[in-house]
Every structure is written in C-alpha cells, then in structure tokens.
Amino acid sequence: MYSNIAAFFMTGTGNSYKVAGWFLAAFSSARTVLRQVKENQPAGIPADTDLVIFSYPTHGFTAPWLMIKYIFRLPAGSGTHAVVLPTRAGTRILGYAFPGMEGTAGYLIALLLWLRGYKVKAVSAVDMPSNWTAVHWGLNDENVQAIVTKARNTVQTIARRVSAGHSYYNGFIPLLLGLGLARISFMYIILAQFILAKLFFASDQCNGCALCRRICPKQALSMTGNKPHWSYSCDSCMACMNYCPQKAIQVSPLIVFLFAYVLSLPVAAWLSGKLGYVFMDLPQILQFVLQYMYTLLSVAAVYWLLHLILRIKPVAAVLASLSHTKYFRRYRAPGVSLKDIHK
C-alpha cells in the first residue's frame, strides 16, 4: 500500500529510534528513510513520501517541545498519511510490568499534523524501558528485554494494521487523564524542564572529552572550563548521563534542595505587599511573570556559581559521592549504538 515511508525519531538513549525502526521493518518492499529530529534541523519530508512516522518520548505527560516545534515547521501534508508513536516510561518490578502514562503526547501531535493537512492513520503509545536515570537506576537486562519484546510486538501489530489499510487509535483513557493534567504539562513546558536542566553536573571523573556536548540533540551543552555546562535548552533526554564513558554526569539531591530553597522566596508577594510593606500594587498576571522571571534568573545564577565551585576537583568529588546517581546503573536501548542515534 505504501511505497515511500519516512520515519522521524527524537531520542536520547534509543527508545524512539527502536520503535521507528521496528515500524519501518514491517514494510520490507517500501523505500524507507529514518531521520533524527534535532535542534535547528530543517524540517522536511522526502519527495513522494506517502507515509510518515513520528516517534518521540513523553515529557510531562505531553509531547516534548522539540517535536512540537518540528511539526509546526513541516510542509503542508496534502493528505499524506501519518502514524504517531510516542514512547512512555515502562517499568517492571518483580516480574510485573507497569505502563507509563503518555497523557496528551500522542493526540496533541496528531492534532497538529491534522491541522497541517496530514491524515493520521494511527496513534498509540509504546511502553519502552524508562531511561530517567536522574531519578531511578536503569532496569536490569531481564526487565529491559521483557519490556522491549512486548513493545516490538505492539509496534508490529500497529504496522500490520496500517499496512492493510486500517486505522489504529489507542490511549483514550490516558488522553482524558492528560487533559486533566494539562496544567501540569503546561507548567512543565514553560518552567519545570528548565529547572530540571540545571540539576546535572560533571563530577571529578569528567575528563573534558565533550562527548556529551556533541551528542546532545538540543545542542544544550557548552564546555566551560573544560566541563559541560547545561543551558535551559536541555530537555532531559538523558543522552549525556547514559552515554558518558566516564559515568561522570550526576544529579545531586543537594542541588535539588538548594534550588527548592531559592525558589521558595516569594518575591512577587513581597513586592505586591502581601507579606509586609507595599512596594507596588501588582495585578495577578504580573505577579506570575515577576515570580517566573525570578525563578529563571535565580536558578541560572545559582547554577553558574555552582559550576565555578565544581571546577575544584575535591568539591566535585564530595558532591558526586553524595549523589544517588553515582550508584545507578545506566540505560541504553539494547542493540543501539551512538552512531545510530547521534550522527
């Protein structure tokens, strides 16, 4: 049914790459193209493409901002068929599998594609092993294989349905839950992801190889003082932490507590007179904007100072030793190498 298929994936550790690849493998007679979505990459679809696939992670119960921007930059679809396959953080404990929750991640992108003139033939989330090693250790091989095997079967089922000319729509309950969590998703996109970006630091084990900077899909890292520095562009794809050859990239609870203290200061409330002397009478929206600006500026300032201090190796060593992530197993999608997903 389809002769020219293009798949676009956004990934840090290979999960979405695997999903897109499985789908393409089901169309052995078609000409296929597999491309990574990265920051500042021109958005285009090869000529004569009759089916496009989009695979990407779920962030904050919705689609990541990088993928949303990419869809907006696509040329008009003119009826081209599309398949939307967001991945979500699957886990497995004591032999029991627990699904992730994609929220609006799938149907938001489907809506944007429809508005761009594409005909969406399938929308379904795919559980892949959670790679959020800033929070938890990577799953062991047995659990990874169990989740990946089920995911591959799911993708192959969807591909067969689409190949036969049928539609496949799944995830309506997560969609409803995602709509209920829309405020959280919105705050994640405009604020939380920026704060999460500033939780990473390089320990004393960092040798300045700059691999993290080169593989970052968001081009969010720079090397300052021979150490990686994370900008607000980071969306926690976890490529840097999971592919660092020195296992030098960490997240420390101490940084979390430091940020929590700084952000607890109610600057807008002080200025509007709710906590004492009235400096100015501010409308509600201006109070939000003021607190928002304070949050971004204060976190950036504290992180910059922290980055300077961590150039002192003993200090970096101490902070790393107090970091839970130092003792965590890292995660990379099985069978995926750096050259596959970070070209």
Q: Summed up, what is this model?
A:
Helices cover 42% and strands 17% of the residues. It has 343 residues and is α/β, with parallel strands linked by helices.
Topology as a string of helices (H) and strands (E): EHEEHEEHEEHEHHEHEEHEHHHHH
**What radius of gyration results from the CA coordinates?**
21 Å
**Overall pLDDT, averaged?**
92
What is the name of the CATH superfamily of the largest domain? Flavodoxin domain
Number of helices, counting only DSSP H or I runs of 4 residues or more: 13
- Would you tell me which CATH topology of the largest domain applies? Rossmann fold
Q: Unreliable runs, pLDDT <50, ≥5 residues?
A: 275-279
Number of strands: 12
The CATH architecture assignment of the largest domain turns out to be 3-Layer(aba) Sandwich
Helix residue percentage: 40-55%
Largest sheet: 8 strands, mixed
Describe the global form: globular
Strand proportion = 15-25%
Instruction: Tell me the span between the first and last alpha carbons.
Output: 31 Å
- List the domain count as a whole number: 2
